[in-house]
UniProtKB/TrEMBL annotation:
InterPro entries: Glyco_trans_4-like_N, Glycosyltransferase_grp1. It comes from the Bacteria. This is Glycosyl transferase family 1. One of its GO terms (molecular function) is glycosyltransferase activity. It holds the Pfam family Glyco_transf_4. Gene3D superfamilies: Glycogen Phosphorylase B. Residues 20-185 form the Glycosyltransferase subfamily 4-like N-terminal domain. The keyword Transcription does not apply. Keywords: Transferase.
Length: 392
C-alpha cells in the first residue's frame, strides 16, 4: 500500500474550535494527506464559533464544556451518528490525538474491527493538576494514560525528549517521532520591525523578553512573573512583550503591570511580533514540543527555557539559548540578565538558532507520520497486534 490507499479516521479533542499549536499541526497534516491522495475523516467536538476553518471533512462529536475552562470541550461518547459515519467511511486506520472518552472509544472501535490505531501525544496531561493544587492526582492520570496508549499499535511524540519520557513511563513498545515544522515565510529574522516596536513604547535599545502562547497557568505564568520581578530588583533594563490570549490574561496583567500585551496574533502579524522580540522566555514544562520555541528560533531569538520535554530537543544549552531547572527563578533571572546585558551573546545565540531551525520543514515532518501509518498497517496485515505492556 502507498499513501493513496490510506483511509484515516482522525479523532481529536479540539480540531478547530480553539486555536493552539497541536490542532494547527493536525490540520496541516490532514491537508498534507489530502494533497497526497489519501482519504481522511475528522471526528471532534465543534462549536458555532470555531477559531478557524477545518482542513478536510469534520464530523461533530457530542461534547460538553470543561468546568472552569468553558472554552474547551470534552467529547463524552461515540454517538450513533459518528458510528454510522465511520461505517460509511470504511477507514483502514484510526488516529487518536487526545486520551478523552471519545479517543478511548475510538481505540475500542478500531480493535473490534481489527484496525490499527496510532496515537499522537500533544501535551503532558499528567502535569496539569500541579497548577491547580491537585498534584496528588498525577500518578493516577499517568496510569490512565498508560492504559490508553498501550492499546494502540504505535504512538508518536513531537520530540525525542518526549519520546524518551514516554518510554520511561512505559506507555508503549512502539514510540516514534512526529515533530513540527516551521513556515519560513512567516517566521524569519527579516520580519523584525523597529517601527512597530516604537509604536508600543519600546525604544530601539530596550532588550525585549517575549512570552508567546495561550495565557493559562500551566504555561508557567507564575514562574515567568516571579523571574521578571527578579530582573526589576536587579535593575536590569528590559521590556516584556506578551503575545497571546487566554483565561489567565487578567491575572498575568495584574502581576506584570508594566508588560505590553498584544493579544492574539497570527500569520504575518505573529511573525512580526516574534521577530521584534530579543529573546524568548518559556518556563513551561507541559509542552511536548514547543512550537513557539521553534518559531522564535527561526526568527533569530535565543531562548531561555525550562529543562523539560520539548525544549530539551530544540534548545542547545549555551549555543542557541539556555536550559534551566524548572522553577529555578534565580537561574532563569541569571540567564535573562546575560542576554539583556550582552547584545553580542544575544546575536550569536540567535544566529545559531536560525541555523538549527532550518532543519524543520513541514513536508518532511508530515511524511514521517505517513510512514508510520503505512508501517503499522503492513504489520497488522502480517498478524501483529498491540502488545499489552512494554516491560516484563
Amino acid at each position: 500500500m502507498n499513501v493513496t490507499g490510506l483511509r484515516v479516521a482522525l479523532f481529536s479533542g479540539n480540531y478547530n474550535y480553539v486555536r493552539d499549536g497541536a490542532n494547527q499541526a493536525l490540520n496541516r497534516f490532514v491537508g498534507y494527506l489530502l494533497r497526497q491522495g489519501a482519504a481522511v475523516r475528522v471526528y471532534s467536538p465543534t462549536t458555532d464559533t470555531p477559531a478557524f476553518e477545518p482542513a478536510g471533512d469534520l464530523v461533530s462529536a457530542p461534547s460538553f464544556p470543561v468546568p472552569g475552562r468553558k472554552e474547551y470541550r470534552v467529547s463524552y461518547c461515540m454517538s450513533g451518528h459518528v458510528r454510522r459515519d465511520l461505517k460509511s467511511f470504511r477507514p483502514n486506520l484510526v488516529h487518536v490525538s487526545s486520551p478523552d472518552p471519545l479517543g478511548h472509544r475510538a481505540v475500542s472501535w478500531a480493535r473490534r474491527h481489527g484496525l490499527p490505531a496510532v496515537a499522537s501525544v500533544h501535551t503532558r496531561f499528567e502535569t496539569y493538576p500541579r497548577y491547580y493544587g491537585l498534584a496528588f492526582l498525577e500518578s493516577t492520570i499517568e496510569s490512565l494514560l498508560r492504559r490508553f496508549y498501550r492499546r494502540c499499535d504505535a504512538i508518536v511524540a513531537p520530540s525525542e525528549s518526549m519520546a524518551q519520557l514516554l518510554r520511561e513511563q512505559r506507555m508503549s513498545y512502539d514510540v516514534g517521532i512526529w515533530t513540527r515544522g516551521i513556515d519560513r515565510e512567516i517566521f524569519h529574522p527579516d520580519r523584525r520591525d523597529l517601527g512597530w516596536r516604537r509604536s508600543l513604547g519600546i525604544a530601539d535599545e530596550d532588550p525585549v523578553i517575549g512570552f508567546i502562547g495561550r495565557l493559562v497557568m500551566e504555561k508557567g505564568l507564575d514562574v515567568f512573573s516571579d523571574t521578571i520581578d527578579q530582573l526589576a530588583l536587579r535593575q536590569v533594563r528590559h521590556k516584556v512583550l506578551v503575545v497571546g490570549e487566554g483565561p489567565a490574561r487578567e491575572w498575568f496583567q495584574n502581576r506584570l503591570p508594566k508588560a505590553i500585551f498584544t493579544g492574539f496574533q497570527q500569520g504575518a502579524d505573529l511573525g512580526r511580533a516574534v521577530a521584534s522580540m530579543d529573546m524568548l522566555f518559556n518556563p513551561s514544562i507541559t509542552e511536548t514540543f514547543g512550537n513557539v520555541t521553534l518559531e522564535a528560533m527561526a526568527c533569530g531569538l535565543p531562548t531561555v527555557a525550562a529543562r523539560a520535554t520539548g525544549s530539551e530537543s530544540l534548545v542547545s544549552e549555551g549555543v542557541t539559548g539556555r536550559l534551566i531547572r524548572p522553577g529555578a527563578i534565580g537561574a532563569f533571572a541569571d540567564a535573562l540578565t546575560t542576554y539583556c546585558n550582552d547584545a553580542d551573546r544575544r546575536r550569536a545565540a540567535g544566529a545559531a538558532a536560525v541555523a538549527e531551525a532550518e532543519r524543520y520543514g513541514w513536508d518532511q515532518v508530515n511524511q514521517a507520520l505517513v510512514d508510520t501509518y503505512l508501517r503499522v498497517i503492513r504489520q497488522r496485515s502480517q498478524g501483529a497486534t498491540p502488545r499489552s505492556s512494554p516491560v516484563p
